[in-house]
Amino acid sequence: MERKSFQDMDCPVALALERVGEWWSILILRDATHGITKFDEFQRSLGISPNSLSRRLGALVHAGLLERRRYSERPPRDEYVLTEAGRAFRPVLIALYQWGGQFCPPEQPNVRLVMDETGEEMDPVYIDRKTGHPLDEEHTTFLPGPTASDQLRAVLARREDQSRTRVS
């Protein structure tokens, strides 16, 4: 089955998934965020076939999330390091760690997110930079943007009406 492309959609979620939508890609970015850079390290960590890993690393380089750097000429060897866009994916990984820990927790977590200064575990909260309000249903809503389809406008209007009814 051929994979559908989202590149022509106006939705930021769809466009982001176009770049990192495969689970292997997200796991590669997780490992790169943890400091893995070399092909064999990614392969050992993920247990992925060399062909699949090579394809996915290439796609992440093409998408601008990883940069391929030569670290040995003989034999030729490259490492893969996060770009600015790859480093900016960190909050998404933290959100996935947090969501996974809450709704599908392992017996024991393999990593913990801690404050550098204190070593204490963190409990991330996602807030609006201007108001400090949490990004929850009580404080936020999705409204149609300039390129929203009629279908999306109708769905969002219905959702907004439901929210008003709940508040009343």
Structure characteristics:
168 residues; single chain; two-stranded antiparallel sheet; 7 helices; mainly alpha
Tally of helical segments: 7
The overall average pLDDT, rounded, is: 88
Find the structural class using helix and strand composition.
mainly alpha
How is the largest sheet built, in terms of strand order? 1-2
Question: How far apart are the termini?
Answer: 47 Å
Number-wise, the strands total 2
Share of β-strand residues: 5-15%
The main sheet comes to: 2 strands, antiparallel
Instruction: Please give the radius of gyration in angstroms.
Output: 20 Å
The topology string of helices and strands comes to: HHHHEEHHH
Q: Residue ranges: pLDDT <50 for 5 or more in a row?
A: none
What gross morphology would you assign?
globular
User: What helical percentage do the residues reach?
Assistant: 40-55%
